[in-house]
Write a structure and sequence with these properties.
Helices cover 45% and strands 23% of the residues.
Amino acid sequence: MNEVKEVRGITELKEYGKIDIKLSSVMQEKGISIYQMTKLAELKYTTVKSYYINAPLTRVDLDVISKFCYVLNCRPEDILEYIPPTH
């Protein structure tokens, strides 16, 4: 998310980086399809697909992340990665 700040009439835009969702690579590595994940994690197909394709999300649901981690036997940092800003 960017922050807009005005200093002495000059608008400054700050970039904080972003969170990359790597669910697709972990699922592929474990041989789990989107359909299988929906059944194993008891989630809607559209929810899993949104995370799978790394669609722009306004909020990350921690219950959903927990279910992914349970099914994939992994940790949150295996599927979420912070990408710092490039200045």
